[in-house]
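This section describes the prediction task in plain terms. A model, or a person checking by hand, is given the sequence of a single protein chain and must write out its three-dimensional structure as a string of C-alpha coordinates. No templates, partner chains or ligands are provided. The sample shown here is typical of the held-out split.
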Amino acid sequence: MKFQSLYDEIGPDRIQELVEAFYPKVYRDPDLRPLFEGEMSEIMRKQYMFLTQFLGGPPLYSEEFGPPAMKARHLPFEITPERARCWLQCMKEAFEETGLNDLPEGEVFYTRLTQVAAIMINSEEDTLH
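The expected answer:
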Protein backbone atom coordinates (compact mmCIF):
# COMPACT_ATOMS: atom_id res chain seq x y z
CA MET A 1 0.00 0.00 0.00
CA LYS A 2 1.32 3.43 -0.98
CA PHE A 3 1.84 5.94 1.83
CA GLN A 4 -0.63 8.79 1.58
CA SER A 5 0.83 12.23 2.16
CA LEU A 6 -1.15 14.94 3.90
CA TYR A 7 -1.49 16.45 0.42
CA ASP A 8 -3.09 13.21 -0.83
CA GLU A 9 -5.44 13.16 2.16
CA ILE A 10 -6.42 16.83 2.09
CA GLY A 11 -6.29 17.44 -1.65
CA PRO A 12 -5.66 20.52 -3.79
CA ASP A 13 -9.25 21.80 -3.63
CA ARG A 14 -9.25 21.92 0.17
CA ILE A 15 -5.84 23.64 0.17
CA GLN A 16 -7.23 26.27 -2.20
CA GLU A 17 -10.29 26.72 0.03
CA LEU A 18 -8.02 27.18 3.04
CA VAL A 19 -5.93 29.83 1.29
CA GLU A 20 -9.07 31.66 0.16
CA ALA A 21 -10.51 31.60 3.68
CA PHE A 22 -7.22 32.57 5.35
CA TYR A 23 -6.00 35.66 3.51
CA PRO A 24 -9.03 37.91 3.96
CA LYS A 25 -8.62 37.31 7.71
CA VAL A 26 -4.93 38.20 7.54
CA TYR A 27 -5.60 41.38 5.59
CA ARG A 28 -8.21 42.45 8.18
CA ASP A 29 -5.84 41.88 11.12
CA PRO A 30 -4.20 45.19 12.13
CA ASP A 31 -1.04 43.44 13.39
CA LEU A 32 -0.58 41.27 10.29
CA ARG A 33 -1.65 43.58 7.47
CA PRO A 34 1.63 45.58 7.46
CA LEU A 35 3.55 42.37 6.70
CA PHE A 36 1.74 41.69 3.44
CA GLU A 37 2.78 43.87 0.54
CA GLY A 38 1.45 43.53 -2.95
CA GLU A 39 -1.63 41.94 -4.44
CA MET A 40 -3.45 39.45 -2.27
CA SER A 41 -4.02 37.21 -5.30
CA GLU A 42 -0.27 36.78 -5.85
CA ILE A 43 0.37 36.13 -2.16
CA MET A 44 -2.44 33.57 -2.19
CA ARG A 45 -0.97 31.88 -5.27
CA LYS A 46 2.41 31.55 -3.56
CA GLN A 47 0.81 30.26 -0.35
CA TYR A 48 -1.12 27.63 -2.30
CA MET A 49 2.09 26.53 -4.00
CA PHE A 50 3.97 26.43 -0.71
CA LEU A 51 1.27 24.52 1.18
CA THR A 52 0.97 22.01 -1.66
CA GLN A 53 4.69 21.28 -1.35
CA PHE A 54 4.68 21.52 2.48
CA LEU A 55 2.03 18.81 2.65
CA GLY A 56 3.93 16.43 0.37
CA GLY A 57 2.39 17.33 -2.96
CA PRO A 58 4.14 18.47 -6.14
CA PRO A 59 7.05 20.88 -5.53
CA LEU A 60 5.23 23.81 -7.12
CA TYR A 61 6.88 26.46 -4.96
CA SER A 62 10.44 25.20 -5.51
CA GLU A 63 9.90 24.85 -9.24
CA GLU A 64 9.09 28.55 -9.54
CA PHE A 65 10.99 30.21 -6.69
CA GLY A 66 13.67 27.76 -5.56
CA PRO A 67 13.88 26.17 -2.12
CA PRO A 68 11.21 27.56 0.23
CA ALA A 69 13.68 28.66 2.97
CA MET A 70 10.73 30.40 4.63
CA LYS A 71 12.67 31.62 7.68
CA ALA A 72 15.16 33.44 5.43
CA ARG A 73 12.41 34.78 3.14
CA HIS A 74 10.61 36.27 6.13
CA LEU A 75 13.64 37.87 7.82
CA PRO A 76 12.91 41.32 6.32
CA PHE A 77 9.59 41.33 8.18
CA GLU A 78 9.20 41.92 11.90
CA ILE A 79 7.57 38.72 13.13
CA THR A 80 6.89 38.94 16.85
CA PRO A 81 5.38 36.30 19.10
CA GLU A 82 2.12 38.29 18.99
CA ARG A 83 2.12 38.33 15.18
CA ALA A 84 2.78 34.58 15.16
CA ARG A 85 -0.23 34.12 17.48
CA CYS A 86 -2.39 36.34 15.24
CA TRP A 87 -1.30 34.37 12.17
CA LEU A 88 -2.20 31.10 13.86
CA GLN A 89 -5.56 32.49 15.00
CA CYS A 90 -6.40 33.46 11.41
CA MET A 91 -5.31 30.00 10.28
CA LYS A 92 -7.40 28.33 12.99
CA GLU A 93 -10.46 30.30 11.86
CA ALA A 94 -9.77 29.32 8.24
CA PHE A 95 -9.45 25.67 9.29
CA GLU A 96 -12.84 25.93 11.03
CA GLU A 97 -14.41 27.66 8.03
CA THR A 98 -13.20 24.98 5.62
CA GLY A 99 -13.86 22.01 7.92
CA LEU A 100 -10.21 21.03 8.09
CA ASN A 101 -10.35 21.16 11.87
CA ASP A 102 -12.80 18.22 11.78
CA LEU A 103 -10.35 15.92 9.97
CA PRO A 104 -7.56 13.92 11.65
CA GLU A 105 -5.15 15.02 8.91
CA GLY A 106 -6.25 18.61 9.53
CA GLU A 107 -5.08 18.31 13.12
CA VAL A 108 -1.67 17.07 11.97
CA PHE A 109 -1.50 19.89 9.41
CA TYR A 110 -2.37 22.56 11.99
CA THR A 111 0.19 21.17 14.45
CA ARG A 112 2.87 21.47 11.76
CA LEU A 113 1.81 25.07 11.11
CA THR A 114 2.15 25.91 14.82
CA GLN A 115 5.74 24.68 14.60
CA VAL A 116 6.36 26.82 11.52
CA ALA A 117 4.90 29.89 13.23
CA ALA A 118 7.25 29.44 16.19
CA ILE A 119 10.26 29.13 13.89
CA MET A 120 9.37 32.34 12.02
CA ILE A 121 9.58 34.62 15.08
CA ASN A 122 12.48 37.02 14.61
CA SER A 123 11.61 40.05 16.79
CA GLU A 124 10.73 40.81 20.37
CA GLU A 125 7.21 41.70 21.40
CA ASP A 126 7.78 45.32 22.48
CA THR A 127 8.86 46.56 19.04
CA LEU A 128 5.41 45.93 17.51
CA HIS A 129 3.51 48.93 18.90
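For orientation: DSSP finds seven helices and no strands in the chain.
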